[in-house]
Specification:
The structure holds two protein chains of two kinds. Chain A is an alpha+beta fold. Helices cover about 25% and strands about 25% of the residues of chain A. Chain A has one domain: B-lactam Antibiotic, Isopenicillin N Synthase, Chain (Jelly Rolls). Chain A is built from nine helices and twelve strands. In chain A, strands 1, 2, 3, 4, 6, 7, 10 and 12 form an eight-stranded antiparallel sheet that branches. Chain A starts with 7 loop residues before the first helix and ends with a strand. Chain B has a single domain, classed as Jelly Rolls (Sandwich), CATH 2.60.120.10. The longest helix of chain B is centred in the first third of the chain and has 11 residues. The chains are: A alpha+beta, B alpha+beta. Chains A and B meet through α3, α4, α5, β5 and β11 of A and α3, α4, α5, β5 and β11 of B.
């Protein structure tokens, strides 16, 4: 991977507080009012040029490959997760891929680069749990007991931040890198350093737990490689600050769960 | 399932004005399908069942091999697109002139969440003089017939442009428009043959692969193509594609009949003759890294 021109701290410095109402993201969406970017707009204004420059500034290239390997496998009951989603609609964060109130720094979102390139409120919808109410605690427990966390997951249970992500067919999470801004804000007492990826407890990690089996059109491109056809329960490491994108361009729902936290094992 | 029977009814004629496709769109007025609706309705199961009934599975892999590489100038195609806005067919992934029993005629994509902001395709080849212009851009008879082996007169070129965020969902090619045009050749959708030879579709990359350019064929992802690379879209195999990246994705396909005696690519004999060259960057002003 090429050396970054923009450090992680520059990209996502000091996330602000999370708004109390999860409905605010769609109610106050700028994306939903942004007009369609037509082909003629795209060819004339070339919004891809600054977007690509930003991507290269965070270290993207066309050569780095990533070989995804299963770290461990958890015992996941998919129906439990579907029930959780249905039972916890009120604490779901539904959002499009645009700047959120707590975002800072020089990122694709703070510069509105995806929106200008054609991403919109009908092709980037994410339903997400973990930031509101008791959803983080519930998700942690669905992933496993403390013993499972200690023996298999190896991320500090108490400070971990889990996010359950549901992508319906037709929705994409565009090219980006993970900066764990929410986790760093919530765990400032651990002195997280985004540039070194370390905190007082150890390396800061993001793992991805597959909730549903891979199915047609479920895509996770990490660097310049496509993830293999995953199975429910598989856990992968998403190495920090490396660009990737994902989509559900298929038929079945795509459910994944990310874990952000300090690696203690 | 017998595809010949499923698609025995020929496609309707295209509307004379390409704008009618959007003006009469059902998709543009269809309300957002929420997660709750998706979970409580069975349209995804219906679509999946249809796909399985028509040959999709979760096991088959497809090892794509480049057939040849054409000398493509991407900027010529960009200029063509800009100069020919009036003959552009902009459409969504919904039923328009299709007939038969397909995911489109059953409106399944729309009911599962595909919409007028995530399935936009800009394409040329059906309206005005775009077909003849595209054939010339591809290299004319020398390339289409001489190099690729197609019967020139009945071959059809389509140019497809996908902006970031746009998806061409899970489907197989039923060559509906080509079959409609060439009924005199007694085409058979199940065997993909006709009186003159094999009916084939080739994929021609116009722009280089870039982040988020995805083509899944059966259960395999296509390799990172280069402008000019030609691949076969295999008979009846389910596939999908998307641009979930940053740069525009431009591809073309050539559909037609390859006389049995000219089917030189069935053994891909010229694979080794293709030079591998580094990504030259985007021909219209972008620097590749």
């Amino acid at each position: 991977m090429k050396k970054r021109k923009l450090s992680p701290t520059q990209v996502a410095s000091n996330y602000g507080p999370v708004p109390s109402d999860p409905n605010i993201y769609m109610d106050q969406s700028r994306m939903k009012d942004y007009p369609e970017v037509t082909l003629w707009d795209f060819l004339e204004k070339r919004p891809d040029i600054p977007y690509e420059k930003w991507a290269m500034d965070i270290g993207s290239d066309l050569t780095t490959e990533h070989e995804a390997k299963v770290l461990t496998k958890l015992d996941i009951n998919q129906q439990d997760w579907l029930d959780f989603m249905t039972d916890n609609k009120d604490i779901c964060q539904k959002k499009a891929y645009e700047r959120r109130p707590y975002h800072n720094g020089k990122s694709d979102l703070t510069m509105d680069l995806p929106m200008k390139a054609g991403y919109n409120h009908r092709n980037t919808i994410e339903y997400n749990w973990g930031l509101y109410g008791d959803s983080n605690k519930k998700i942690k427990d669905m992933l496993g007991s403390r013993k499972v966390w200690e023996d298999k997951i190896g991320i500090d249970y108490d400070t971990a931040l889990c996010r359950l992500l549901a992508y319906m067919p037709g929705n994409t999470l565009p090219w980006h890198d993970d900066n764990l801004g929410n986790w760093c804000r919530d765990n400032a007492h651990l002195n997280p350093n985004m540039d070194t990826g370390m905190c007082d407890l150890g390396p800061i990690k993001r793992y991805l737990v597959m909730i549903t089996d891979w199915h047609w059109g479920h895509v996770l491109q990490f660097q310049n490689s496509f993830f293999p056809k995953w199975k429910s329960g598989e856990v992968y490491d998403l190495p920090m600050y490396q660009p990737h994108c994902s989509t559900n361009m298929g038929i079945r729902l795509k459910l994944t769960c990310s874990i952000s936290g300090a690696k203690i094992k | 399932m017998d595809k010949q029977k499923l698609f025995s009814e020929p496609y309707e004629d295209l509307p004379s004005d390409p704008k009618q496709l959007l003006e009469s769109s059902n998709m543009k007025d269809y309300p957002e399908v929420t997660l709750e609706q998706y979970l409580t309705q069975d349209y995804a199961q219906q679509w999946e069942q249809y796909a399985v009934d028509t040959g999709a599975d979760l096991d088959s892999e497809y090892d794509s091999k480049m057939l040849t590489r054409l000398d493509i100038n991407e900027s010529d195609f960009i200029k063509f697109m800009t100069d020919n806005m009036k003959t552009c067919e902009k459409k969504y992934y919904e039923r328009t002139y299709q007939r038969g029993k397909s995911e489109l005629t059953m409106n399944l994509p729309m009911k599962c969440g595909y919409n007028h902001r995530n399935t936009i395709e800009y394409n040329w080849g059906e309206y005005g003089d775009s077909q003849e212009k595209l054939k010339q851009l591809m290299g004319g008879e020398e390339i289409i017939s001489g190099r690729l082996g197609f019967d020139y007169e009945t071959s059809r070129v389509r140019l497809l442009a996908y902006l970031p965020g746009q998806i061409f969902p899970w489907h197989f090619d039923n060559m509906g428009l080509w079959l409609k045009r060439n009924q005199n050749l007694n085409p058979n959708l199940d065997t993909l043959t006709c009186d003159r030879g094999k009916i084939k579709r080739y994929f021609v990359a116009i722009s280089d692969w870039h982040w988020g350019h995805v083509l899944q064929m059966a259960n395999s992802f296509f390799p990172k193509w280069k402008s000019g690379d030609v691949y076969e879209i295999p008979k009846g195999v389910y596939h999908l594609s998307a641009n979930i990246g940053i740069r525009i994705k431009i591809t073309a396909n050539v559909t037609g009949v390859v006389p049995f005696e000219k089917d030189s690519f069935s053994t891909a004999t010229n694979l080794n003759a293709v030079d591998q060259y580094p990504c030259p960057g985007n021909a219209w002003g972008q620097t590749s890294n």
